[in-house]
Amino acid sequence: MTIGFALLLNHETHNFIRQIQVELNHQFGYRISRQYPHVTIKSPFEIDRLESFVDYLENLARNISPFELQLKGFNHFGEKVLFLDVAENAYLTNLHHQILSDLEAQFGVPPHEFEGKNIHFHASIAGYSSTEDFHRAYDYLHKYQPDFTFLVKSLGIFYHLGGDDGWMVLRKIGL
C-alpha cells in the first residue's frame, strides 16, 4: 500500500483551490482533481503495515504546535503542474527534514528525489498533458492574486486506493 503525509489547509484556502478547479473545468472542460487540497510534507511511499505510520504521525503531532503558513501566488512545474506557492518557511522545512530523518531511521523509508534539499512546498491545483491546455489555464489565472496566511492545525495521512482510483485522506490528526 502507498501513503503520504501532508498539511491540511484551512477552509478559505481549500475553498479557493476548489473554486479555481471548478472554474477551469467550466471554462475549458479540464478534469477536476479529486485529491483533497493539501501541502505535501512526505511524498508517497510504500508500506506493508499502516498502524506503525499512523502511530508515528500521531506522536509527532503531539509535539507540534499550530504554525503559520503562507500560500502566495501561482507557480508551476514546467508546463505540467499549476499550484499555489508556499512562501519560504523555516519551521516547515525543519519539520520536513525531521520526518525524512525519522522515517529513514525508524522504518528504512528513503527520501524521494524531490524531497530534502529538492523540496518545493506547494498546493497543487491542476496537471496537464498538453502545453496548450497548460498555457490556457495559466493565462486564465492571471486575474487572481492569491495570498493566504493561516495557522496549520491538522496533518493528514493520504492513502492511495490503487490503480486510477486516486487518493483519500485516511486520517486527520490535529496539532
Number of strands: 8
Instruction: Characterize the overall form.
Output: globular
- Helix tally? 4
Rg calculated over all Cα atoms: 16 Å
The name CATH uses for the topology is: Cyclic Phosphodiesterase, Chain: A
Largest sheet: 4 strands, antiparallel
Classification by helices and strands: alpha+beta
* Fraction in beta strands: 25-35%
Residue windows where pLDDT falls under 50 for at least 5 positions: none
Which whole number gives the mean pLDDT? 96
Number of domains: 1
| Helix content estimate | 25-40%
Element pattern in H and E: EHEHEEHEHEEE
Can you identify the CATH superfamily? Cyclic phosphodiesterase
Q: Architecture in CATH?
A: Alpha-Beta Complex
CATH domain class name: Alpha Beta
Sequence of strands across the biggest β-sheet: 2-1-7-8
**Distance separating the two termini:** 26 Å
Report on the structure:
The chain is of the alpha+beta class and 175 residues long. 33% of the residues lie in helices and 34% in strands. The chain contains four helices and eight strands, in the order E-H-E-H-E-E-H-E-H-E-E-E. The strands form two sheets. A four-stranded antiparallel beta sheet has the order 2-1-7-8. The chain has a four-stranded antiparallel beta sheet with strand order 5-4-3-6, with helices on one face. The protein is globular, with a radius of gyration of 16 Å.
Question: Could you give a quick summary of the protein structure above?
Answer:
With 175 residues, the protein is an alpha+beta fold. It is 33% helix and 34% strand.
Draw up the topology in text.
Blueprint: E1 2-8, H1 11-28, E2 38-46, H2 51-62, E3 67-77, E4 81-86, H3 90-107, E5 122-127, H4 131-140, E6 147-152, E7 154-160, E8 167-174
Antiparallel strand pairs: 1-2, 1-7, 3-4, 3-6, 4-5, 7-8
